[in-house]
Design goal:
It contains 10 helices and 11 strands. It has 324 residues and is an alpha/beta fold. The chain has a single domain, classed as TIM Barrel, CATH 3.20.20.30. An 8-stranded parallel beta barrel has the order 1-2-3-4-7-8-9-11, surrounded by 8 helices. Strand 5 and strand 6 form a beta hairpin. It is globular.
Length: 324
């Protein structure tokens, strides 16, 4: 076994599928990559979320299809905008999906952004005031956990009112579907870290360097102790964006084109990478593992995600794969 065991998974291109000039008429690319990743031995498959601001395949529907194409890999969202959905409906969908997948679901969830007009309109289109999304997420997580654990749930919060709700089916996983809450040291919002420590089964970050990630993990675990929780029980995940190419200039150019198409900007350029030889990605994953990340989600910043996956399986994954 590798001396630094880590769960490795990829983000399936549910948004990338809709980018570029040659948009496919079906989702076979996504399903084909899911099967290839499982066959290659990866641990997890992840999908992102957006309603209108960054169009893509709906995440939970997609994971149901992926569940039918796979047998072993864990299936996750990185990250689901939980506050866009009513928690009772979300509990029902997630419970059903956990059963269909044989208990393989994990929900990475986050407050989500409202930094530009497209994002603000996304929340309003779902009937949610952007200013309410953080508190709605907290209530959603509380309700999900209770619906999956209690026979009758009554809840009277600021955004949701429930009286004697009984939910079936419940997740196959005994403790319910694990929930990882998005946490970002760079945001400067301490409530994010406290939320993860208080409500989450773990945390996931996208914007930290390995050095910053170590600080983030330390602070969340410290808050967990304050809340009387075992910090070692929290899963720790990091979301990376890479482009694998021995020609570093070509890798950076390809990644820049992809990210600009994905977001409409590359204003967060310093957050992404590495872009270049696979050995750089191997070292960065090791750096995050040393910083405390036990799970790594890898997104390929490329219009050729299948080629990137093949390179990843051939030149990155062997450095972390368990050996006899």
């Amino acid at each position: 076994m590798n001396e630094n065991p880590v769960r490795l998974g990829i983000l399936l291109p549910t948004r990338g599928l809709l980018l570029g000039e040659n948009r496919p008429h079906d989702a076979e690319l996504v399903l084909r990559m899911a099967a290839r990743a499982e066959e290659g031995g990866l641990d997890d498959l992840w999908v992102g979320d957006s309603l209108t601001s960054k169009p893509r395949l709906e995440p939970l529907t997609t994971l149901a299809a992926v569940a039918a194409r796979t047998r072993r890999v864990r299936l996750g969202t990185a990250v689901l905008l939980g506050a866009l959905r009513h928690p009772v409906l979300l509990a029902h969908i997630a419970g059903t999906l956990d059963i269909l997948s044989g208990g393989r679901l994990v929900l990475g969830m986050g407050v989500g952004g409202a930094f530009n007009e497209e994002q603000r309109q996304e929340w309003l289109a779902a009937g949610v005031k952007p200013s309410q999304r953080a508190r709605r997420l907290e209530e959603t997580v509380e309700i999900l956990k209770r619906l999956w654990a209690e026979e009758q749930v009554s809840f009277h919060g600021r955004h949701f009112q429930l009286d004697g709700v009984h939910m079936e089916p419940r997740p196959l996983q005994e403790k319910g579907v694990p929930i990882l809450l998005a946490s970002h040291l760079r945001s400067g919002r301490e409530e994010q870290l406290r939320r993860a420590a208080r409500l989450g089964d773990g945390f996931i970050s996208i914007s930290e360097t390995p050095e910053e990630y170590a600080q983030l993990a330390q602070r969340i675990r410290g808050y967990a102790r304050e809340y009387g929780r075992d910090p070692d029980s929290l899963e720790s995940a990091q979301y990376m964006t890479v482009n694998l190419n021995q020609d570093e200039a070509r890798a950076k150019a390809d990644a820049d084109r992809f990210i600009r198409a994905y977001y409409g900007t590359n204003m967060w350029e310093e957050l992404w990478g590495p872009f270049g030889p696979p050995s750089q990605t191997v070292e960065r994953i090791h750096a995050y593992r040393r910083a405390g990340a036990g799970t790594i989600v890898v997104r390929f910043a490329s219009f050729d995600p299948e080629g990137q996956l093949d390179t990843f399986l051939e030149e990155v994954w062997p450095a972390f794969r368990a050996t006899p």
